[in-house]
Amino acid sequence: MSRARKGFSLIELLVTLAVTAVLGTALARFVISNSRFVSLQETQMDARQVTRAAMNVMIPEFRRVTFGGITAATTSAVTVRSPIAFGTLCSDTVAAMLPTDSVLLASTVNGAAWRQTDGTYAFAPGVTVTMSGALSDCTADSIRVIPGGSLITISGPSLGPAGSIVYLYQQVRYTFEPSLVLTGRTALTRTVGGGSFEEILVPLGDSSGFRYLVGNNLTPQASPSFTDIRGIELRLVGESVATPRGNVRPSQYDVTVKVPFMNIEGS
């Protein structure tokens, strides 16, 4: 006659339940920790992408600005004369330009600037550009229109002598201000020629802003004289749109970079 199989004792059941609970808790903590780590990595990547995108937009434009090219400057907004086309003056009204977009030249020019003998640029706002000119104005000084280039007539204030380097510029304003796209967040906006502004990047931290490089040592200052500004210091604090799990605020990526102007002679 076979003996009946003995079942688990109460103590064995309690030990099994305790071990299962410990393992289950450890597994849950691992899953939660891994989920938070992945969420943090994703939001940090988002914040870095915002910062890098802002740098990619502003740094090339600021790098082209010449000495005297800032017309307004605060810690939250800056207006610059941004060069869009370079060339050589054939006369005080005709210029041979290097290759560029003819539509850009005809529609979005806010002014012209020419290089003086001391290395600084003189500015002539409010010019009008037409895609024409007399080649005879250029041959006198052995100036030629290179393949892909253009000959233009610049109407408005008188420009410099023949042979001077000249560029056409747009008046561009960047601001850090409350976003209309993401309520409660800060956006970087861009305005060309006094037209309507567009939010080009969002979100950014409230501590994002501008300072201005002064003197031969390019010392950052918040409110220098326009005549002393030789570059711009950008502080960009990119933020993630979402808040990572387990955190109370979005991830941030903070970068500060100095951008000297292309030409800083003549101070």
Could you describe the 3D structure shown?
This protein has 267 residues and is of the alpha+beta class. It has three helices and 14 strands. The protein folds into two domains: 40-78 and 171-260; 80-169, no CATH class. Strands 1, 2, 3, 4, 5, 6, 7, 8, 9 and 10 form a ten-stranded antiparallel beta sheet that branches. A hairpin with a 3-residue loop joins strand 1 and strand 2. The protein starts with 9 loop residues before the first helix and ends in a 7-residue tail after the last strand. The model has no long low-confidence stretch (mean pLDDT 84).
Summarize the structure.
By secondary structure, the protein is an alpha+beta fold.
Topology:
Elements: H1 10-64, E1 70-73, E2 77-89, E3 94-97, H2 102-107, E4 111-115, E5 121-125, E6 128-130, H3 136-139, E7 150-155, E8 165-178, E9 186-192, E10 198-204, E11 209-214, E12 219-221, E13 229-239, E14 252-260
Antiparallel strand pairs: 1-2, 2-3, 2-8, 3-7, 4-5, 4-8, 6-7, 8-9, 9-10, 11-12, 11-13, 13-14
Using the alpha-carbon principal axes, give the shape: elongated
Question: What is the number of helices?
Answer: 3
Order of helices and strands: HEEEHEEEHEEEEEEEE
Number of domains: 2
Spatial extent as radius of gyration: 30 Å
Q: What is the mean pLDDT?
A: 84
Strand content: 35-45%
Q: What is the rounded distance between the termini?
A: 112 Å
Portion of residues within helices: 10-25%
Structural class: alpha+beta
Main β sheet profile: 10 strands, antiparallel
Q: Indicate the low-confidence ranges by residue numbers.
A: none
Count of distinct strands: 14
